[in-house]
Amino acid sequence: MNQRLIARPIERWLHRSAPEQATTLALIYQGMSESPVAAWSREQFDAALVGEFAADLVNAAEDHAQGIGRECRYALKWLDENGATVISMSWRAGEGLNMNLDGSVESQLAQLQRHTESMAKQSAQGMNTLLEHYQEALGAAQTRIRSLEEVRDAFELERLARITEDGGTVKAPDDSQLDRLIKVIEGLDRAAGSIAKVKGLAAPAELKPPVKVEPS
Questions:
Q1: Three-state secondary structure string covering the chain
Q2: Which are the contacts of 87, defined by CB distance < 8 A and separation ≥ 6?
Q3: 1: Cβ–Cβ under 8 A, 6 or more apart, which residues?
Q4: What residue segments make up the domains of the chain, in order of their start?
Q5: Contact, 79 vs 42, CB < 8 A?
Q6: Buried b (16+ CB within 10 A) or exposed e, 199-215
Q7: For residue 80, with 0-12 CB atoms within 10 Å meaning exposed, 13-18 middle and 19 or more buried, which class applies?
Q8: Assigned CATH for 3-100
């Protein structure tokens, strides 16, 4: 991926005001375990030009990934004085899976993670497509029911007008088929709301890198 394209979102993120408790900006390599690549104090960051700083960050990540020999994930984090993460963002750097894996446990886990991410994205896309079809069907059903309501109301007004002309008494309307159809409107509205919530939850979440397991 073009390094300039990567630098743009990083630059936008850096332009945001860091929380007051943030004291250190750190570039972190996220492999089997996290390890720092570089770090800057808040004073050093404030004295730098954000555009140049973002470009230097991208270059530092690319150089580190090239040294490892494959695509890697990196995080940019604002840390507090205790080293805890305040806010962060992440991206990938390196040549990707086109390079040969070395057969190590870390490279195999990296390949498994990429495969898992790809499957999660495909699953989310399929779910979103299915939910869109359901929403279209619900919309068509609601439109038809509204039309039936209008027809029912027109007949009811006509019936009341005839009763008034005849001097009769008004009776409660029968629970006709139209009435029963209209009663499902609330159920359809609730279903549409539920589908919207599920669609929001179906967005693929960013998968975290595998946690390093130390040999016993």
A1: CCHHHHHHHHHHHHHCCCCCCCCEEEEEEECCCEEEEEEEEHHHHHCCCHHHHHHHHHHHHHHHHHHHCCCEEEEEEEECCCCCEEEEEEEEECCHHHCCCCCCHHHHHHHHHHHHHHHHHHHHHHHHHHHHHHHHHHHHHHHHHHHHHHHHHHHHHHHHHHHHHHCCCCCCCCCCHHHHHHCCHHHHHHHHHHHHHHHHHCCCCCCCCCCCCCCC
A2: 18, 19, 22, 77, 78
A3: 92
A4: 3-100, 116-201
A5: no
A6: beebebeeeebbeeeee
A7: middle
A8: 3.30.1490
Per-residue pLDDT of the chain (216 residues; tens, 9 = 90+): 456 678 888 889 998 878 889 999 999 998 777 888 999 999 999 888 888 899 889 888 888 888 877 788 898 999 999 989 999 998 888 765 444 555 666 666 766 776 676 677 777 777 878 888 778 887 887 787 788 778 878 877 887 887 777 665 555 555 555 556 566 666 666 666 666 665 555 554 444 444 444 444
pLDDT at 23: 92
Cα–Cα distance measured from residue 119 to residue 91, given in angstroms and rounded to the nearest whole number = 19
**Phi and psi for 32 in degrees, rounded to 5?**
-65, -30
Say how far apart CA 176 and CA 200 lie, in whole Å: 38
